[in-house]
Amino acid sequence: MLTEIYDACEKKMKSSIEHMQRDFKTLRTGKVTTSVLDNVKIDYYGTMTPLDQVGSVIATDATTIVVNPWEKNLLQLIESAISKANVGANPNNDGDLIKLFFPPMTVEQRKESVKQMKGMGENAKVSIRNDRRNSNDQIKKLEKDKEITPDESKSAQENIQKLTDKFIAGIDQILKDKEAEILKV
């Protein structure tokens, strides 16, 4: 019973870290990546569709992204969706494709990215603490129902705390590495 609680808790905590790392991909670092356009969606025949499903999205160099729609009539829709998304560059429509020229990041922009990244890390930590609380509640319920002894309950809660500490330390290390990457000019 307790191992099931440990396993479920660990799985949820890993999921929190993976979610945080997916969120990091939307941040701009020194080199532009196509993931800055991941949240951009267009109305494609009545369905909100991600940009990479209506054309090819390629980072041609460290500061340029090219969007080549599969249907040329989508150019205006894509251009306006990118403008509304405020990704840090204005779309340039040449009639065939859309180019985004990202200026080099300023120190201020880098600090803003770090601030956003730390917020994402804090959200992941809150999620992990919630997982800890939920697991401890399950353990306390087992103790209350006399399925485990008070000593087993205390030991189990200590194990959950060790797991929590391990994942929080992991997040701190990821944040430290990511901050160094973002601030490096």
CATH A-level architecture of the largest domain:
Orthogonal Bundle
Low-confidence stretches: none
State the major sheet: 4 strands, antiparallel
Number of domains: 2
> What structural class do you assign from the helix and strand content?
alpha+beta
Shape: elongated
Percent strand equals 15-25%
CATH class of the largest domain: Mainly Alpha
**Radius of gyration, taken over Cα atoms and rounded to an integer in Å:** 22 Å
How many H/I helical runs?
4
Output the helix-strand order.
HEEEEHEEHH
In the sheet with the most strands, the strands line up as 3-4-6-5
Please report the total strand number as a whole number. 6
